[in-house]
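Quick one, probably user error.
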């Protein structure tokens, strides 16, 4: 799933290429992906792009006729073309959910792999009209997101810190992969309770979060969409590296499996050497 660094990379890429360009047409190939009807998507025809920004994991293409907002979900991606193909999109026979043609001949597709379709497209008058954006917590790379703000968000939460970091209503933009990386950098168990963290724990976690995300955004900066996924994989130290050696201590990276995802961690660095039980057992091995 694209997370904040990759989404920021995509937003920066688009902002540098389509700001000031007109949208010639926006063609929906998967009608289930379009979540709004007022304004209609046809309202974007001949609209000029005024800028592209990010809200959590949402990309917001602002135009003089409204906002085209999309969320790539778990298996979505953006495919850019300097010269948009002239092939006709046939709904139901393509992974393409949306095609946007631009006045300079360029354009992009939003694609989604797999059978579970979650990619979402919105045409709205303001980004806050998208329910997912309206519910977002603060952005961790916003200068206003201080250590004290972070402490306040964690206070009283009797939930595991892994889930807290992934909760978009608490902190915007962090998903499964970067929460693994942040917790590894902070030397913290994903099962630690947010409300039980002491001041030193919070300091360590806050510093790890800011450093991990800042580095990842810098890595994504300037890369075209086709290169962002590989750059993300290369930057991972524990996520999706089950069975490999931890780059810090050399212990074997392990996984905990859930119904539709897994988490990765290093026992030596994060859990005092104790392996975590599969979450289907819902307990820590003693």
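Nope, works fine. Designed sequence:
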């Amino acid at each position: 799933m694209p997370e904040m660094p990759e989404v920021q990379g995509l937003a920066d890429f688009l902002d540098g290429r389509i700001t000031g360009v007109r949208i010639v047409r926006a063609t929906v190939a998967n009608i289930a992906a379009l979540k709004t009807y007022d304004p209609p998507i046809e309202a974007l025809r001949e609209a000029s792009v005024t800028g592209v920004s990010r809200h959590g994991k949402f990309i917001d293409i602002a135009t003089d006729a409204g906002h085209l907002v999309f969320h790539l979900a778990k298996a979505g991606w953006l495919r850019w073309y300097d010269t948009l193909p002239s092939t006709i999109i046939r709904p139901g026979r393509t992974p393409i959910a949306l095609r946007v043609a631009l006045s300079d001949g360029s354009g992009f597709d939003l694609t989604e792999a797999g059978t579970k379709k979650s990619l979402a497209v919105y045409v709205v008058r303001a980004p806050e009209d998208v329910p997912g954006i309206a519910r977002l917590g603060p952005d961790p790379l916003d200068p206003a997101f201080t250590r004290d703000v972070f402490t306040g968000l964690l206070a009283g939460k009797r939930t595991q810190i892994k889930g807290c970091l992934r909760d978009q209503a608490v902190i915007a933009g962090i998903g499964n992969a970067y929460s693994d990386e942040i917790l590894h950098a902070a030397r913290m168990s994903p099962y630690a309770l947010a409300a039980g963290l002491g001041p030193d724990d919070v300091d360590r976690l806050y510093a790890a979060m800011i450093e991990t995300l800042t580095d990842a955004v810098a890595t994504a900066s300037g890369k075209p969409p086709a290169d962002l996924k590989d750059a993300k994989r290369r930057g991972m130290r524990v996520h999706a590296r089950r069975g490999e050696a931890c780059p810090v201590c050399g212990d074997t990276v392990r996984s905990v499996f859930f119904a539709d995802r897994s988490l990765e961690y290093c026992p030596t660095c994060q859990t005092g050497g104790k392996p975590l039980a599969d979450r289907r057992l819902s307990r820590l091995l003693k």
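Residues 147 and 206 are 6 Å apart (CA to CA).
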